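Example 3.2
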Amino acid sequence: MKEAPKLNLKRSLELFEDALNLVPGGVLGARRPADFIMGEYPIFLEYGKGCKLTDVDGNEYIDFLCGYGPIILGYREDEVDDAVIRQIKDKGFCFTLTQRYQNDLARKLNEVIPSAEMSIFLKTGSDGTTAAIRIARAYTNRVKIMRCGYHGWHDWCIEMKGGIPEKLYEDVHGFRYNDLDEIEDLMKKHGDQTAAIIMTPFGHPLHQKMETPKPGFLEGVRKLADKYGAVLVFDEVRTCFRLRMGGAQELYGVTPDLTVLGKGMANGYAISVVAGKKDVMMASASKLFISSTFFPNSDGYVAALKTIEVLEREHVIDAIWKKGDYLLKGIRKVIDRHQNAGAELSGVAPMFFVTFTKGDPNTTRGRRTDFFTQMIRKGFFFTPHHHGYICYRHTEPDLGKTIQAMDESMAYVSEKYK
């Protein structure tokens, strides 16, 4: 049972100790050391290129988290970065009024997203989902929300309720992905008061196995929204421009009223979108106020336009599916070869997750921790609590090395827990 040597993380740990006196908790949100494996993962990164990251101690990793999803092409993608740099240097990007790239991007989204008759532009996924809920409430003059999935950090949806009065989320009801009976029961009870059903069309629940929709599930939710006059919102922050150019709605053939986009559309630059049917979207023009100093900044628009151009020209989505299929085929063989490790693979080629839900429940955490510890020590950046992504710059040799590292790490776990 050969164990990979521990990484040198001296500088990362020094910076974290410094950060504890400067930032509450040192690092906030999903990038906290506690969300990985304490003492095993780097805390501060120095640079990235293609599909690889280097931390402040000089350790290099083949990365499968892709910045939590925005990196669809690769880190420091020259064509995208050069377009943004030209915009900043030659024209500027933050002005009193809007630049014309707003129209260019809205028109492009109308071409590629089935539901995108009109668009409004924001900065983060949480901005987008919250704006979509406000639009739905203004359009329907209703209050209640049915939700399925992670929708950001704002008051109405965050799981961690510290600092949030109950009145701000008491009208929000959750349902489980692929459980049509549950959402049907909720709508029977609250349908005439429901402004929106918001959901991820592809199931990627927090810390759990990923799910594709069962036959009839998305169609059934669409029918329930129509029956009760609710706005159907697809949270495609992770899935659009990754499962298909037009998102999961294109892949699965079910069109929502509103769609929230972000992450992969601009290869790391901050921009998000609420796009949708004209009659619903027009509520944002007359019934509510959505504004920010930075929403009109054109760096994100220019990055998105260039990223989408590259995605289409290079057939990036097809390439990502092909690469992901190769990787997932290898992972399945590894899992079959080391069944005692108790691992499972879920998801689809562009987005996938290795979990440890099989076998003795008393050792689930230990097996998971040991596997991902071995992987990070070998130079492969996954996380125990979040699914992985494929980007365009992952190569077949990168993926082959990943499969080999998984085989060795799974063998270590299998031997340790036999």
